[in-house]
Amino acid sequence: MNLGFVRFKRKKYRVKRANDFITGKKSRFLTITNKKIEDISEIEGLDKLTELQVLNLSNNNISEIRGLDSLINLHSLILDDNSIHQLKGLEHNYKLKYLSINKNKLREITGLENLTQLLYLQLMDNEISAISGLETLINLQELYLRKNHISKIRGLEKVRSLKKLNLEKNQIQDLEGLENLENLFWIFLGKNPVFKEVKKISRTFLGYAKYPQRLVKYCKDNLQN
Predict the structure, then answer these.
(1) 122-126 — which CB contacts under 8 Å span 24+ positions?
(2) Which residue has the higher pLDDT, 42 or 135?
(3) Is the Repeat keyword given for this protein (predicted)?
């Protein structure tokens, strides 16, 4: 029997083999959460699931992304709530369209160069200090960097397909760089230093804006240095 979807969450079970919860190499969806997994590559049999499309390994103890090279058909990967320090190990997962690594220990954005088909990227609640390493993500539409340590809106000039950008709870001081994002449809800037500055001239500003270019123009016309 080939399972189309598998979710395995019972906390008492310690995952050792992919075959413990999957039968058939054509499984498409796999969720293994709250199992104290430390090393993805040690899940025996996972590398045989070459048809896997969605993998959720959230709420584990993973510190490094490895063991996914054979999952060449993976289009969604969720690694929220782990202890990942570096974005590497995804060089062969070039079909990824959705990547979520929220609530980890990332300090920089690297290792995504081959993910040119990526549409959605979530790196919220990390320790990232600058936006970088996204130059090749020409199809990226939504980027979520809420709750990091970012102070400048830079590094997105070549991501021309970007439509939604969430930078809430960072250290953004001004709107410089936003004018380069011509196709951006939504911007979220709540709980940044710049939010207080914009509020001085627009009491109705709630921390987000549709058509950010209008916000940039409005601030240039009204904010005094």
Answers:
(1) 123/148, 124/148, 124/166, 126/101, 126/102
(2) 135
(3) yes
